[in-house]
Amino acid sequence: MKIQTIILMCLLTAIYPASAEDDKRPNIVIIVARELSRKDLSCYGGAHASPSIDRLAKQGVRYETAWGMLDAKLSRRTLLTGRYPCHDAATPLFPILLEKAGYRVTTSANDPAKSLSFIEQFKEDSPFLLLHLDDTEDLDVDRLVGKLVTSIDGKRLKDNTVIVVTSDHGGGDSKADIGAHIPFIVRAPFLTKGDRVSKDVIDLSDLFPTVLSLAGIDVPGDLKLDGRTMIPSLRGSDDPFEKRNWIYSEVGDFRMVRDWHHLVDTEGNFHDVENDPLQEKKVSPLDKQAPGRRKRLQMILDRFSD
Amino acid sequence: MNYPKFLQASLLVISATRGVAEIKLKPFLQTYCIQCHGTDKQKGDRRFDLLSDDPENFDEAETLQEILDQLNLGEMPPEEKKQPKGEELKAIIAQLTESLQHARQAARENSGNAVLRRLNRSEYRNTIRDLFSLNMVDFDPTVTFPPDDAVEGFDNVGEGLVTSDYLLQNYLKAARKIADKAIRPGPRPKKIHLIAKGEEIGGTMRGFRPEVARMTIKLRQPLNLSQLRKRGVPADGEYVIRVKALAHQRKSRYKDEDLRYNSDESMRLSISIDSRELGATAHRTIGEFEIPDDEIIEIEHRVWLDQGFNFNLHWANGPNGSFKRIMRKVLPKYTDDAIYPLRNPPEMYIGSGPELHVYELEIEGPFYDEWPPPGFARYFPDPPKKPDVSYLNASLTRLAAGAFRRPVDSAELQPYLTLAGRHFEEKQDFWAAAKYGMRAILTSPNFIYLAEAGTKELSQHELATRLSYFLWSSMPDAELLAAPLDEPATLRKQVERMLQDPKSAAFVENFAGQWLGLRKLGEMPPDPEKNRSYYVDNLESAMREETHRLFQYILDGDRSILEFVNADYTFVNAALAGHYGIPNVGSDEFQKISLKPDHHRGGLLGHGSILTTTSNGIETQPVIRGVWILENLFGTPPPPPPPDVEPIEPDTRGLNTMRDLMEKHRDNPTCFECHRRIDPLGLAMENFDHVGVWRDRYSKKSLIDPSGEMADGTRIGGADGIRKYLLGRPDQFSRCLTEKLFVYALGRRLSFTDREDTDRIVEGMPKLNFGLRELIHQIVASETFQRK
Amino acid sequence: MKNTDRRTFLRGIGVSLALPMFETFAATKKAPASAQRFVCVAPNYGMYPGGFFPQETGADYVMPALLKSLEEHRRELSVFTNLDHPDVGGGHGCSNTLLNGREIKDVRDPQEMLSLDQLLAEELGRDTRFSSLQLGSGGFSWSRAGIQRPADGDPSRVFAKLFLDEPAKTKARTRQFLDEDASILDVVLEDAKRLEKRLSKSDQGKLSEYLNSIREVELKLQRQEDWLDVAKPKMKDSVITGGNDDELEVDLAYPYNTAVFYDLMVLALQTDSTRVITYGHPGGNRLFPFEGITLGYHSLTHHGKRPDLVKQLAIIETFYAQQFAGFLAKLKSAKDAEGRPLLDTTAVLFGSGMGNASSHSSRNLPIIAAGGGMKHGQHHRFERKGRDGRPLSDLFVTILQQFGLERERFSSSQGNLNDRLS
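The joint structure predicted for all components is written out below.
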């Protein structure tokens, strides 16, 4: 009798995690800086000092290879819908899904004050999502991040709050690897040990499923997504089957994919971006690995041709 | 061919007694033998009609001996032929016995029949080991020596030990290597202590979790210390290797058949050693360890490493084939993102399949018990700071006495000393000169050959040498060389001492291994698919161990040699006991267990080793088994099939039993001649399958019928029948083993002149309770052993 | 010193002394030889007769199942039925009698064991770095001393031996060793002569093996020294490494290394490193890693006509034939110094001393001859009288004559096959 009851209870909690009292779902803070390049951040070896973001990276995971789209608008769209722009698909935005699931949601478009006060006034009845789209000068973002983190930590929310700092575009007009590269830093103490640099490849489409799984929401059955949840990657999983093995970017009719080493685009370029990040050299015909890598990436790229 | 002098004399004796012999022998042969062994037919390749017409022929005496043996055994003439009457038979036997005895006596008056023989490969290796007290585990100067041919089943018979230009060149090379190894002047080599962690470990793929080094496939991704990769360890000596490892994801999403891997087995890590300089030949596995799942285990292993050797870790039972194959052919089956059959990125696989993880790798050493090494100090004691020619000469003289197994005189050594001395004078490098001299000594015929002087008496040292190559397969030690072996009590004491010495393991290994054909075990390995436990449980070495243990046990306890034929005990570990269907043996350690008759295992005939060597890996070979029994237990090997008879091409389509197949031998009288002796024995063993498992039937429908009839009409029913038959004729088995031991002890074929000693020993065996140790004492004490 | 003088003498006449003094056939030469090189390839357990011997004789025979891959070379090769060595009995030993037709137990004088390739090496091997090469698995190449010549089964080592020059430092060391070894031989020879006097007559006979070996090694050391400073032909190691071709995987383990060995053989002949090569496919019970094979090689040869086993055996033997066909193709496209296809001047023999492996018989040996300026294109079937077919040595006599050697007999020959092949 007793055992059955316990099992029943377990099942219930698994299905209905959103009951108010014992809601352990994490708070989620996503800060998307406008046109913030990795060159602007010292933790990525950039020229400018970014002490707050650096500190956040120290406490979390910093991704070496993260891609956005080749245009800021497209990036935001991908981020919000979890789909690459080329699909041109109508998709729900994740803040709305979270709200339905009982999250307190605030989106702030370039309004630091709003974001800060949201945190300050937060009461622990249900978890929150703060999506801050920043449009300030570079170093202001760092300052804002500093303030938000101080506030979160001051309210003892650190252990149950995921903070993501990224950008919508960071590479000028270049239709190349460097044009798609964005900074991507996550602090989530319950998922990941600090001070880690990940070589896993991710792109902005991964944020949607990640947020959904953090919030315990099943992806709606009819919804197709391009990305994958990053939770295994954040946990430091070794298993590549739980992670991305290629990432994608586009602008206009131009598309490109890459993996850990190579890049292929719709203009027929093929480069070893690991050793030749500026895509200045041809891949050596002596490279025995290259032909196979190229064909694989081409196969994936072809999935995005019309 | 040159026949020894004695033969000419012996043949004279035969012609002298011919007057008497001929009267009876010729007509006797004419009546009973010539029909099958004459002009028209020469069954068994024997022909007697020319006998005695040409007494200058050596084969004569041997042939007469053979005729006598056959008559004594009652094997010939065969049942269905005309038989001599009792009186007639007795007379001819007496006649032949007497004339052969005369011939032997005369032969012994002259020189003996020893054949000059060289060291065979294992004797050479053991001799070097003992001469310089070297650790030979990783140092085998004989690897490139050609294999030694066996004569009469043994590879220490002089006749088969040919010396070729190729071998001599190898002697020169081996001597170079040995000199470098044995001459080790200078201070104790410095210790090294190297540690590598995670990605620092050589051979691992980088760019993943830095705290681990990974192996993803079987054997082909060795991990090692990159610091040692170029030059290996700095000096010969004992080293300690430590490894921290973990078995990761033994069961994974991949199917075993795709990875060509067995996920049911615990992961095993093996440590092997090799040397860049020596290449593939030096590669050797030194240890294998089971690694627990998801738990870091620490392994420590002590091992002797030669200078220049490096060690490698391998995953002994990981996925078979190359990593590339997995990237190309396996991965695409599991993800649409991989493309077939091209090189997909390893990042797509690493971490997803089974992996053997290594966290830390460490080596420390060398450690020495004493310095300078004893094998060096023996010949070069307390080398002076500036050694001179007289020290060189004294040292090389000491060495030559050791290498030649006797005192040397200065005249014979002079060329060697001059060679080294001149080198020293010219180059002023003492140790180079010493090595040069050593190389010449190790190429000398006095070292390579067990040379005995042309007299019939053996000298003290010659006897010591015979003895030590008999029981140790190596050179005599100082005590043996100094012992007065002409005193029977001393001789006995020395034999006892030698048998107790661990070096006598060579006797078990070389004698028993060759007598019983154990060395051939593994040449026809069973099909791995259908005999999994044979490989998983390492049954091959367990089987060999069982037989070695039986031999050692009978030898140590001076037990009856008839226990080779039948015993109520044997030696097994859990795996072998399981293989035999004997319950309740729980330990991996070898142990003596009691046998019940329904275990069917008593004596050699029940040993897996013998039953497996006499099969071809898929099925039993009754002919081979029959020949094996005749040759090694009965001592009456059948002649090989005559060259002019085409072997029957086996046609096993639609045949149900081995017996049906064997019946074909009856169709051809030439075959049947010998096969009537061979086949019944082989078929009687049919209850043991190709790896020695007991069976009652071939298939549901076909029962095994092990019954049969020996050539003399005795009915035997299965292996027990053979045991009973032999136990009823203990002399026959005694003779067989005595002759085998003699061949091995003397390093030559037996001739009819050795017959008297053999007969005497065989006759005396019942009084000695058939003890094996006593048998060895008898052999050593015999005139045959002590004279040439 | 007396010994030094003797050596100086040897040195003076140099390599030419490497020729035997036993027989003087070498002195008599015929008109220009049409063959200059000899290669023999031997599978240890022969070939399954049912798939090897053609039904029809003459030029229009249908290529048998196992030999299908040789179709493209049919005009450059001859297949024979009913050739064998009359003096040889069955059993495993017969594989080693392929090139001499003799078993050691039957000969009185070890010289009778001399095999065809070694006889040819004495003639053709004087001016090359290696008088002959034994590759793969050995056993059927016999020296004049009645010793089996050991074979090298490691392709990397063979490549190094043929094409890699040692660094100057190693060369100097080698030279020093050669010199020292020569002096050591002087010393031990003196010692052996002293020992000889102490021995009985029969033992002296045995010791003569050692004395003869000393003489032969002296000549070998001399030959090595003569060649030490001659640079080896330069060769890219792509033959053993696969070079830069991504899809080309070179596997140096048997049986995959068969193709590598064939490549090495072509290179060795082309660079004139040697003119005589034997290459053996080993016996034993290895499990071939081919699709469809479940049993060891030796076990399969004892197939007892069971179709499932014969089928598996055919997979292995088809592989042998395919590889051999590839070799012939390479010999056709490779050119000699005069620009002719190498095959035209290379006599190639494919065969085994074992006939039907199922009974380990030595009758009706599987034999193919190719190239060497002989007249090819036919299947020749000879008569079998009782046990014996036509002596295989008759073919050997013809081959010897192709090399311009005036030989009427070899081993158990009764004639020659000139009427068929030239």
